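User: Here's a protein and a ligand (iron/sulfur cluster). What would the complex look like?
Assistant: Let me lay out the input and then the predicted complex.
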Amino acid sequence: MRAILNFEHQCTLKCDWCYVPFVRDRPDFSVTQRVLARLLEHGITEITIGGGDPTSYHEWRDLAASAKMAGLFVHLDTNGIGLRRSASVKDALRSYVDLLGLPIDGPDASIHGLVRGQPRHFDIVIDRMSWLGELGLDIKINTVVTKVNASTLLQTAELVRSLAPTIWSVYEYWPLSFGGTNREQWDDPAGSLTFALARLPRELGKTRVEINRRHVRRLTYPIVAHDGEVYIHSASDIDRFQPLGSIFDDGVLSRAFSSCTDEREEARSRYTRPNDVQEAL
Ligand code: SF4
């Protein structure tokens, strides 16, 4: 059972299509630790700590440590900007993170920069990839497919092949939240996103490819903000979130998980550690 724990105060990038609602106060990590405790009481087994960029806050390490020591599979999603090459960061990554997600949205700095609004970000991610690989971490590259980069997706695939992450997750643009107000710029009713996704291979060398269409991701996981507000995708409107209330109120998490199930093969295999597979054989 998986939950997403998002930091929704602000982000170090300003992606125009981003569906994270940045409407909350700066995180108080004593509260966020209590949010995690509520998720643990509810029996989650996997957590994605995402953003904004959680690594903007040095306390991400304590949060990841709590999750890991409680036995969770810890997936950290970051844009990489806050991930500094220090001994303490490396130690935390090695000790507490099972899977690390980083974004690459094009085969070069210029296409990636069009999607992320920041051309220099491409080199930051490539730099992070170079030293993260030495830690032996499982890396997941995330690519959002939009009208702007769909035609270059096969070239991006060749870059991903050369970087050889464990997983390449390719996400169809989803006009949710504030990012949905710019839909005309990123979505393509004529079908270029669908066409680009259909041409992708399911494997690139040793890299497994996950193709995530928006209708398949709907109602697969609850999202919990750093202050404890819980929301899910709306059952009646695929392009909206449905707020459920505070994690500290009775029944809110139960309602969230009763609405969300993730039966996808990708979800099961993404959160299985190699050792678990061996033990099961
Ligand atoms: S898509 Fe990710 S990196 Fe971009 S603004 Fe949203 S949270 Fe930040």
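Summary: The pocket of iron/sulfur cluster is lined by residues 11, 13-15, 18, 20, 51-52, 79 (CB under 6 Å).
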